[in-house]
Amino acid sequence: MLVLWWPVDVHEYRTARWTRLVERARELGCEEEQAESVVEEVLAAQRRRIARAEDPDPLVHAALEQRLAPPVPPRRPLPPAARRAVVGVAGGLVVALLATAVVVWLRPEPPEQVRLPSLFGLDADDAEQVLERAGLSSDVTRRPACEPDGLVLDTEPAAGRSVPAGTRVEVLAALTQETTSCAARLVARREAWRFVGFARGGPAPPFARTVTLVVDGSAPSTLSGEAAGDPERWAGLLDLLVAAGADGPPRLGVEVAPAPPRTCGLSRPASITTRPALRLVAGTIPGRTSCPLTLDLYRSSTGIDSVVAYTGR
After folding, report:
1. Rg (CA), the chain
2. % of the chain at pLDDT higher than 90
């Protein structure tokens, strides 16, 4: 039997697992302000092993635990009198430990902890299914909002938190406002959230015959309209969009206007005209600068023909 194996892309692994690795560093006692730098050190030290591993998680977690393990002082032999005292104390401890073991055995185990999944870009029905698969239950409350009907606005507890299995999650979902002022905004917001849904594996929005893609000031690349409908052809950009909304309330800034000359310290591509763009501003990607992930979608009569992304790299 022939077994095929592809090396792990270290950058993609870092992007996908960053939040969990930083959280694990904190669980191991690392100070909050130092957790990210410690994870960076471990990933840099293990880069070659990560690239060769089929599943890098066990070796990265082991390296993180070793990096944060407290130093073990050298053992010194006890004098005879001290050893006899230890033996006497140990006998008493055995009795105490046996009594404690009985109490622990009778005490019920604490419930399993579950990480509240991201509901970024989901409607209430899909959110309930995601929470159910995670071992959680939910209650949905509708609130008037200038958002697509049923879109998840917030949860309590917030996404990314660890909660006991079986916890009931309060899901706040949009009840679309039927007002004149909301109608114009709603068209743009529906298009924006549709693109987020596409990033999460939903149907693709309309694309033009060719789509130009510029990421962080790189040279423009081109996709056919058919290729643009395949999430795998976006070189990880759609995964970054999902990661930007993984923790906290599912917020998305939406604006229709010409893009400014500079965003996140980068100039607007010279190949892009000043025609209005549908600008999506999502959350900050873990491990990057404080600049939020920003996508400018340029549209023609047939669909999206250009996407300019600023990832905060």
Report:
1. 26
2. 48
Whole-number Cα distances in Å, 123 to 42, 78, 244, 255:
38, 66, 18, 21
Token representation of residue 281: 């501003």
Mapped onto helix, strand or coil, the DSSP state of residue 215 is: strand
What is the tens place of the pLDDT at every residue in 49-105? 888 887 888 888 888 888 887 665 656 666 666 566 555 555 566 556 665 655 555
CATH number at residue 165: 3.30.10.20
Q: Rounded to whole angstroms, how far apart are CA atoms 211 and 85?
A: 79
Q: How many CA atoms lie within 13 A of 180 on its CB side?
A: 0
Regarding whether 248 and 191 lie in a shared domain, the answer is: yes
Number of separate domains in the chain: 3
Rounded distance between C-alpha atoms, residue 279 and residue 293, angstroms: 10
Specify whether 169 is located in the same domain as 229: no
Instruction: Note if the pTM is more than 0.90.
Output: no
Query: Is 83 within a domain?
Result: no
Asked if 282 and 255 touch (Cβ cutoff 8 Å), the reply is no
Which strand ranges, in their side-by-side order, compose the sheet holding 168-176? 137-145, 168-176, 152-156
The amino acid that residue 115 corresponds to is R
In terms of Cβ atoms closer than 10 Å to its own Cβ (0-12, 13-18, 19+), residue 220 is middle
Is there a single domain that holds both residue 207 and residue 299? yes
Structure-block tokens of residue 239: 């995964």
Both 138 and 193 in one domain: the answer is no
Token couple for 143: 């609130």
Q: What is the largest CA-CA distance in the chain?
A: 91
pLDDT for res 5:
43
Strand partners of residue 123: 151
pLDDT tens digits, one per residue of 136-166: 999 999 999 999 999 999 999 988 889 999 9
Helix (H) or strand (E) holding 145, with range, is strand 137-145
Residues 208 and 167 in one domain: no
Grade residue 309 by pLDDT with cuts at 50, 70 and 90: very high
